[in-house]
Amino acid sequence: MLSYELLAALLACGAVAGFMAGLLGVGGGLIIVPVLGWALMAAHLGGEHVQHLAVGTSLAVMMFTSLSSVRAHHRKGAVNWRIVRGMAPAMVAGTLLGSLIAGWISGAALRWFFVVYAYAVAAQMLIGRQPKGGRGMPGWAGQGAAGGAIGMVSSWVGIGGGSMSVPFMSWCNVPVHTAIGTSAALGWPIAISGAIGYLISGWGISGLPWGSAGFVHLPSMLALMLMTVLFAPLGARAAHRLPVPRLKKAFALLMATMASEMLYRLL
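The structure assignment produced for this chain is given below.
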């Protein structure tokens, strides 16, 4: 069972992650993974598989929370379903393969990968430069290659891939609002295939905490899901009233701080 302290930490994490994901379009998994990892370690749960549990649970949470985001973007006509059909199959394959491979990767290696990725995203947000459109969307093969790579990286970080798919589509001259909406639609196949992969790769592993289905910690998933579903729409509405560019830079500093703390523990 979850202690009251762990439950409170997860509810607060879910609220912040949901609000920031709704406000900025990215960031849910980049908050959930480190906070859930620290919470499990503080509760002495998960042992050497803490990072696997954090990543797998983060992807499982996004199975539910991404649906509301997709519906909202679809109602606004901001989802290019042709791009979704072109990229999603390879994304599913890449995410599933990556999450299965993760079962053979050490927790320390996954944390190193998360640290490097978080620093890269934080730097991009602080600099604020977006890729200039240089071409149109590639054909099926090019979309498949990009989707497979985005899916595999996402499976090792525990995210929906928006921090990669939005810049890729912007580079391919897709309007930014359409790129964000389409990225939200692509996050759901990443989440479901990643959650299934982590469930399979962790199945039968000894030493996992009570309530784990493979590398998905179900009690944590439910607590986080409840709050992200409630707060993501609030963040989306607040995006029209708050200074998003400044908040994005503040979020980048928060990511860099969390990555630095994780790096300190690794060293």
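Interim note for the steering committee: The first helix runs from residue 4 to 24. The chain has ten helices and two strands.
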